[in-house]
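Two quick folds needed for the group meeting slides. Do the first one here.
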Amino acid sequence: MQSMRIGRRQAARLAGGTAAALFAPAVLRAQSGPVRIGLIHPVTGALAYSGQQCRVGNMMAIEEVNAAGGIKSLGGARIEPLLGDAQSRPEVAVSEVDKMAEAGVHAFVGAFASAIGLAATQAAAKYNIPWSIDSGVSDLLVTRGLKNVFRFTPGYGSITTRSVEALDAINKKAGSPAKSAILVHEESEFGSGTAKLLAERLPGIGIEVKEVIRHANPTRDFTNVALRIKSAHPDLVIITNYQNEYVLLARTLVQQRVELLGTYSVMGGGFNLRLVKEQPQVAAYMMDFNIWMNSKSPRAAAFRKRVEDAGNTLTFEVPVGYLAVRLLADAFERAASTDRDKVIAALETSTYFDAMMPFEPTKFVNGQNQGARAVLLQVLDNDIVSVWPDQFAAKPPVFPRPKG
């Protein structure tokens, strides 16, 4: 709730300037000088918490750039955010894109969910407005030939491949006790696409997929799903879904006493420090393969402290939201222009790097950063830490999960 209040305060503070930007005549907009970035996320509806967390990271970066003197190559132009609520619905996101394009927006950041991002980036392509994806893992986002779309973080193709490698490594190190799994995923492009890739690749590391269970968004009760899993006796449950359903499913598995060697998720929307804080017994020893910060980096530790000192909870959405804006700011700086083609050209040649992520320097190929990578995380000692690969691991993994 504290995170939500911060988002509302920020929104209220910016509302006046944003409204003026939306309705000012075109000639006045041209003379005003700010770099306008449209932030489009689901800040109401079922995906609101994650959308608000992305927005927190966006605003941290905007405030940081402005405090440091703005875009210097543009005479110190300040970044002005235009705030759009997708309401957890793709068609609403498209409407927000159209409104902001009319208002003279120079670039977009968003849109948390893949389904929302697919619709919104397609709409932005009509205007050739550059889009920096902060969260959205479907590879369709960057394989449709849209020249305006750039994703700094990895997609589900890369993440799924690496997640299977990580699972194979920790399973073999433990003597290969895990031989079967049940996949549980949400119904949209994010969950369905990830589960399909997992089902194809898990047999290659000796893990039988006993069942693939798809659920609706929202789902209010996972009792029947937990009982199905319990009767099938898999060694692992592998989850891909959003915040609310992730937490509810994890809690239900514990309540129904489903015995597992481990709960392993791929891009688990509710695998975060909020879960660890509020439900430590449920979260203990859970694993997730996801985008996260470099647990060995002092820069990452400083960023986390900054987030928490502001009264917020660190989730993966905060740093990716921050970095999506910083990537754009760097492109505007190097382009020395708000011309759309020049900004897109600057993004295409970006080598932006931030040591708080376990990434290599940025290299975009068809809009996808080839230097991006995810890591295996685990809840250990009431915290989330990287446990694989070794160069980013703060602690060794604990697998199988201790009983009791």
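Then this one, please, same format:
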Amino acid sequence: MRLTPGQRTAAAIAAATALNLPFGTLYAFSVVLKPLEALLGIGRAETSFVFALATITLTVGMNLGPRIYRAVPPPLLALACGLCSGCGLFIAAAAENFAAFALGYGVLFGLGAGVGFILVQQGLNQTVKSASGLANGYVVSLYPLGAMLGAPLFGWAAEAFGVRALLAGLGAIVLGSCAVSALLLRVAVIRMHDASAPADAAHHPQWPLFLRLGAVFFLAASAGLLVLSQAAGIVQAYGGTTALALAATSIISGAVAAARIGGGWLVDHLPVPHVAAGAQLWALAGALLLTLWPGPLVTLPALAMIAMGYGFTSGFTAAAIARYWPRNAFGRVASLLYIAWCVAAVGLPVVAGWLFDRTQGYAWAVLIAAGVSVLGTLLAVGLPGRKPA
């Protein structure tokens, strides 16, 4: 049966959903920190290292993706991602020591997730004809959506069945979801290269534009990942209860997911620099709100605004790549740009932790986030409103 263009796009979106949702549970890793540490006899430094390692290998996988998806059929590559990450989770579930756990979760799980993320993004952009901003915003929203759905399930499963069963179960889910994604990619007849595009279009770097867009993305991600990585601790530092801190984690993750969809959708209707500057100003307003009126009741909306600024930026960035560069270049440009996300993940969040150890508060970190947003706004207004010639 031959699918219509609209049906092919729908199948590509479904394939991205099936593959990315379980991988988004990476953002829910903090839920199982304590039981993992007790099980393996390790400390917070070791578990933090594994999360950072998974972030790095995720980025490595993203950058390997464009080199692989032209040589390997998309359905087969989706299955390979599932096998890599699924086996990694099985190794982590059976691990008796830190090294085995780091290999399974920090290396294999992250690597498969990264290749798969770029695979389905490139596949989507080879099929979508209209509302590409909304479609790209939706795809990048799947990670925080996976975390929002996975966090309470992780908490329940870890308590009811133990961490080993939780990791093994997640491995089975990853294998199954990647198999479903592979089937959908096959049905959609995804071609990762548009032969009708100019031969050199995918390799035109447009470095000034790339660096400016990358800087805007990096600055927004620095502030946003500060919030996402330490939301519960920040809420408690400002006097919030444990219940409020736990609720904040899920609420902020949901807000980021919605903002990513919104950021992509806005690019379909407004010039990129307007959306980019607006996202940074929204985050700045949140940082100033918490600075001027610190307190537990203000903390949740203020942190949500900072994180949503990152969410809007993530959504519009994916949409902007599709607007500024040809289809064949999407995966290559996106994978390089996500290096900024990796650096941001180990930048301001680490500085904020260092400042907290010395001041027992987050006031200085929030002020830095405000300054980051100001700089991001100045860079954002210089982005082109139309596709460069």
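Slide caption for protein two: The two ends are 39 Å apart (CA to CA).
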